[in-house]
Amino acid sequence: MNGIPTPARDGTAAGAAIPSARVAPPREAGAPPSGSGSGPAFGARLMAPLLLGSLLNPINSTMIATALVAIGQDFHVGAADTAWLISAMYLASAVGQPSMGRLADRVGPRRVFVAGALTVCAAGVLGACAPSFALLIVSRVVLGIGTSAAYPAAMAVLRAEARRTGEPTPRRVLGRLSLAALGSAAVGPTLGGLLAATAGWRAVFAVNVPLALLALAGALCWLPADRKDAHPEGAPAASGSLDPLGMALFAAALTCAMAFLLGLADPQWLLLAPACVLAGVLVWWQLRHPAPFIDLRMLARNGALVRTYLRHGLAYLVIYCVLYGFSQWLEQVHGASSFQAGLIMLPMSLAAAVCSLVGARTRGIRAPLTVAAVFLAAGSGVFLLLQGASPLVALLVAGALFGIPQGLSSTGNQAAVYAQAPADGVGAAAGLQRTAQYLGALTAAGLIGLLYGQRASDSGLHAIALIGAVLGLLLLALTLADRSLRPGASRTGTGG
Description:
Layout: H1 44-54, H2 56-63, H3 68-75, H4 79-107, H5 109-129, H6 133-147, H7 150-165, H8 171-198, H9 203-206, H10 208-222, H11 244-261, H12 272-288, H13 296-301, H14 303-332, H15 338-344, H16 346-360, H17 366-383, H18 392-420, H19 426-452, H20 458-481
């Protein structure tokens, strides 16, 4: 049993163990007794729609990687412009994930899940039929909003199921959720390359329609109905507690920051002024609001959770730099087709899936996160040696090395968030974890645009690898220094 504190409803540590421990969470007043309800706890019917819905966001975040070159050719735009397709979805997701998490905590996860699936269908149709590059970007924004619903809703459903049965959510169940996200993100480049090569890049958008419809059908048939009093006891009414102004300020500040990051080759320093002003107003408003979009006071008391977000964001900054940078380099420098690039990246997918399973069976959190940081640094070192004429085996090994930290980082940080999140805010906390991930992705997109310009190059890939090596070592130091991750650490206090 590891020593991560579990915050109580007020954000302080309550001393509960991580999800793998056999300590039952308290049932809500009026909740059915242990074992009651429809079907076995955490059974296949409950998990099927949750797993399918949770893969929609990560698979769309990576599936487009091997279609960017084809899209750029059709619309006559370069790598710096196609980076907007990456960033637009991540911007929408960075705002959408915690927003949908708040909605799931207050109006019910099933309603949020269903609304998200319908939105994904609309985005898939819009992207498949988009006549212009601008509308393609709009479709990615809508796709980011729609796909943001499933993961925080799933985490809220699992917490509700734990309360219903009086049993903690098994670590293996969280592992399956992580595997669905990781596996789909990992196979995304291969699937995207296959679709682009056989049916054209528009199929990368159209495939969302059948996937979302399947998730929608499963949710309507098998997810438990939301309680009429879905918002936590003592919380403000749902209609008055969503903090739309906080969401708008966060989105505006993030948009200014994204516009600056995507123009690093020719920095627009004037964009930093409104970004800083909006961030300052956001902080002021969040501290005044009775139910803020981002609970800064809770985060200030919960240092362990903040450090988890930091680790997650830095890890995915490196992972996404490699994911998008490597795929474009394979096509534009190594000379691979979209489909070949996807196949070359397949070992990355397999390694991520295997390591996700390993991470789900690990009781502790510190060890897998340490191994992940080591492999981020080691994998970046291998990328420093690659050239356009490098043999195929070197490319396969380089990709596989980066699959290892994908699997271990995701499962380790997910388990940490579940343990550290406030009892009545797991949906929002899970959404903020994904926000940290997407902030890393936004930064990665800006770095790729800066280092590649209009075309990938060996020197650009080596610069990405150098950044990855430095950040991998930084992550290793942060993980080893974090006392809350050590076995036997105190489970009292604030988690700071």
